[in-house]
Amino acid sequence: MTPDQQKSIWSWAFYDWANSAFSTVVMAGFFPLFFKEFYAAGASSTDSTFYLGLINSIASVIVVMISPVLGAIADQLGRRKGLLILFASFGSISTAGLFWVEQGHWIQAACLYIAAVIGFSGGNLFYDALLTLVSPEKDLDRVSALGFALGYLGGGLLFGLNVWMTLHPEAFGLGSSSEAVRIAFILTALWWIGFTTPLMLFVHEPHPPEKKVMNIAKSSLNQLFLTLKKISLLPQTFQFLIAYWLYIDGVDSIVRMALDYGLSIGLNSKDLIRALLITQFIGFPAAILFGRIGEKIGAKHGILIALGVYILVTIFSAFMDAAWQFYLLAVVIGLVQGGVQALSRSVYARMVPPEYTAEFFGFYNMMGKFAAVLGPALIGWVAMMSGSNRIGILSLVILFAAGSYLLWQVDIRKGHQLAKAFQVE
């Protein structure tokens, strides 16, 4: 591998370091906590859980609607990197806006959060699509895992600083923990856009012949169906997407709703934040390890191992009632979360026709976000209807089990061969 290739890979991977600040500090960490205790102050525990689930679902629906079209436009214009920067900037500005939302104004907070999630998800679409551009085929598992590992480390470092600020605001000249959380939103925005710079400078994307944007826009309304038709011609790729849709629903639901669930069953917010921080730092070496596992035993088997752990974690979480149990779950999730994400991305990358990477990854991201429509909304609805947050969490077992079953039947080697030979008639 040449020095330029290595620079390109590390610059690409550092975008995970950049945007994981949002997924860790905001999405998984302080927004659910601050939403329940500050933005939605006065609402009951089950109502605020329902609101949070609904907010996540609305954001996901929007991403579902725009992802395939954005992917197609990026492929035809050859502007994956430019669109990534655009969406990262939009997400960063929206995140910073949370600083100015006052207590009780949960609708305003929801709108900014939804905008930030759109920026985060759109950026990820183009980031994932650049994987096959920067990485040789034989190194896909390792390079994908490197991105997630740097994401866990970078997000964890900023989150660690933010946790310190909230636990000891006086050490930073701040008046309260609430002020520290609001400052965390500003720091996350700056971190996100600042560490996108290496990708801006050192990842180079070849551009196809110029095409008129208006012509592309006119044809984009049919793009979802055209992409689905292409994927349907690749049966192994199609079945993997269905499996991924099911099991990533559970993964994303745990990421987005874990702190809300812990608060709802009476655990202390400081314990929950510390546990999430543990997950981040364990996730760094674990993601690297899973990249190696993917090379040794096959990426599919690595994902199946992780999903088996998630099933056990979900069952255990429905019955926990002590902080030490939440810490234990944080450690276990940290061992597998990055692995299932990284290996899923590299498996899919192998089964995507090279000339349609952004378009196919648009659909991949759409499936992942469509899953996030169901999970948080389901947990919130069941919690509100039953009056118990413990009951809803068990529904995730069905998603993990069904996803595992379908994944087991996917022939990745055959899917790779079909993708390489793929031609649209």
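Second entry:
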Amino acid sequence: MADAGLTANQLTGARWAYAFALVTSLFFTWGFAYGLLDVLNSHFQTVFGITKLQSTLLQLAYFGAYFVWAPFAGVVMTKYGYKKGIHFGLTLYSLGAIFFWPSARFEKYGGFIGCTFVIGCGLSTLEVAANSYIAVLGSEKYAAARLNFSQGFQGVASFAGPMIASRWFFTGKNATSLDTVQWVYLAVAGLGLVLNILFYFCDLPEIGQDALAEEMHAVGLKSDDEPFWKQYRCIFGWVAQTTYVGAQVGVAAFTVNYIVDQNIGIAKPEASQLFSYCQITFTVGRFIGVVLLNWIDPALLLTIYGICCSTFSMAVSFAAGRSGIGCLFALFFFESICYPVIFTLGTKQLGKHTKRGSGLIVMGVGGGAWYPPAQGAIADRNTRLSYVVPFTGYVVMTLYAVGIVISQTSRNGFRFRTVDEIQERRHEIEEQQPSTPISDHEEPSVDEKKIDVEYIDRA
């Protein structure tokens, strides 16, 4: 077992910063792959002559891999530790990307689907490792803010993907061919290889879930004494993550189609460019969320953002023209903090169940496999109306956040500011320990009398 490990409090500042920066670099890898996926969804409709519904097989493969593989990734992380888990994930990621080459060369849509599944397995392993590692790499008070910051770089890569696609996939002869797809994914495989080499030579401290459990137990928090199936906050977090990711993926998968179908004179290349601007809005929202989460309770902020997501998804469904596109931008902004906040709320104070719980929450990414086909079936008839489907996912996420706010309020009163419960408990224990100074007139104890007698005898 590789789980003895440390807690973040035992790391020096330099070692903490190094570990944080290196693991954060992983978020760029799957952000780039995810950004390309949404554009390929639209591009393959043209190249292979398939329907919008058929094109969502890419999403089914990518996110279905999370649903199938993430629980096993949690087991791998528990048995072998974060570092070996990261190596395993990067290897799968690079292998999947390499096989995009023959799939593009021989123009086999089935090959793309298979390669996408392998990439999804690799990325689900990396997500279990990186999300969990960043969440526990410091005070729980700032866990949501830390994870939002790291995932902000995923957002940077997400809009880089569509920008590359708008320049190379949809212009000239590339609009109807797969030539440049080969080179892009060869570069993606190379990036995975370079990261794998860097992690091999790095000293990545293992943050152990047993050490985390001891830190909790020391202040009387023993929620992890219950079996894993009774960790309801985590289990309902998986439900919320499943519906939210399904909604987010559905929104992104049909953004290009939605913009083109608004019939305001925007063609696919320009629509792809606007999609990259939507991703920029998402990324900016995530970094703004970092600031907000340093002050505002994560469950409360998720409630507010969830209500906004629900509202704007309905507005996108029924607004026409440029107003609909404006609502789409607002929807991307309010999606920004949702995934990392759900993850940190769902894995909070899991103690010895931390890695298993992380695998379950990441398994929720599998929701991205189910929502796009449902939305695609409607989008083949009316793209705008199909955005009613994501609305259902945002509602479930919002109910999860509201439930946590109510639970916190019932225990400790309404909470606006974010707090570190472990640190608060530690201070309470210190304050409750009475200081017992000995009075000048206090009778000496029996042991003290014996010491005095022994001293006189020796004298």
